[in-house]
Amino acid sequence: MARVLRAVARAVVPVACPGCGREDVRCCDSCAALWWEPVWRAEPDAARLDVHGRAALPVWVAAPLVGPAHGMVAAWKDGGRRDLDGFFADVAYRAGAQIAPHLVELGRKVRVVPAPARAASTRRRGVNLPLALARAVAEGLIAGGMQCEVVSALAIGAGEQRGGSAIDRWRGMRRAVRVTVAPDPGRPVLLVDDVVTTGATLAACAAALEGRGSPVVGAVGLAAVGRVAGDADPGLR
Ligand SMILES: [Zn+2]
Questions:
Q1: Which residue has the higher pLDDT, 23 or 14?
Q2: Which of 16, 36, 147, 170 has the highest Cβ tally under 10 A?
Q3: How far is the CA of 93 from the centre of ligand 1 (A)?
Q4: pLDDT band per the 50, 70, 90 thresholds, residue 227
Q5: How many angstroms separate the alpha carbon of residue 4 from the centre of ligand 1?
Q6: Cβ atoms within 10 A of the Cβ of 14, count?
Q7: What are the Cα distances from residue 129, in Å, to 19, 21, 146, 180, 215?
């Protein structure tokens, strides 16, 4: 009976691996395995991460944003594949657990702050993806011995713009990211975003938080691209 129901369900909503297109599987083993590599540091390839005049933030990611991994992220972010929420939460959890040893030396409770999602994106998806990832990263940090709390401290306001030069967009984005909760001066912050392209979004988030007295010690993303041309999309949702 269950087999019949699955067959009916497939006929109505065909399922395929978002990485390689293999049919009748939500996510095949070989595409899933791309996300089981140890986290690595992506900031050397994030061209705009240091625009605000300080050393580039440490940015840990789980996979390069190419090939099947890119397809999986795209299906999850913009293809309505809400069935992948748990998969990417697991990736974020493992990332948190792996970086905990690097942060535990801070000796302080850390604020885990998601990058701001556009309200329209959250409505369309039915879930705030950076916030969901931040919660999973925090669970991983706690499993790794850290004290932390998730704080949705950032929002996107007016000022963000598309078009214009990369630096114009970056300036606009920097104006657009607002801190929406009372700062906890000196409390270290770990940023969380889904993908890291140029690093401009993370740089704008870090600038906003540090302008309010919250030191940003690093960032976690699911995936990152390599160095991109200077006029590439800055990556804000
Ligand atoms: Zn696959």
A1: 23
A2: 170
A3: 22
A4: very low
A5: 24
A6: 9
A7: 19, 23, 23, 18, 23
Q: How far is the CA of 28 from the centre of ligand 1 (A)?
A: 4
Q: List, as ranges, residues with CB under 5 A of the ion ligand 1.
A: 17, 19-20, 28, 31
Distance from the alpha carbon of residue 27 to the mean position of ligand 1, in angstroms = 6
Distance from Cα 1 to the centre of ligand 1, integer Å: 27
- Tell me the backbone φ, ψ of residue 162, rounded to 5 degrees: -100, 165
Round to whole Å and give the CA distance between 142 and 94: 11
Which of the pair, 173 or 233, is modelled with greater confidence?
A: 173
Mean pLDDT, to the nearest integer, of 52-80?
A: 89
Contact 198, 188 (CB under 8 A): no
User: What are 146-165's pLDDT values in tens digits?
Assistant: 999 999 999 997 655 556 67
Is 51 in contact with 44 (CB distance < 8 Å)? no
**Ranges of each domain in the chain:** 29-224
Give 17 Cα–ligand 1 centroid separation in angstroms: 5
Angle at 42 between CA 189 and CA 230, to 5 degrees: 105
Is residue 32 over pLDDT 70?
yes
Share of the chain above pLDDT 90, in %: 64
Mean pLDDT, residues 84-109 = 94
- Tell me the per-residue pLDDT of 36-62, one tens digit each, with 9 for 90 and over: 999 999 887 776 666 555 677 899 999
| Alpha carbon of 105 to ligand 1 centroid (Å) | 38
Cα of 29 from ligand 1 centre, angstroms: 7
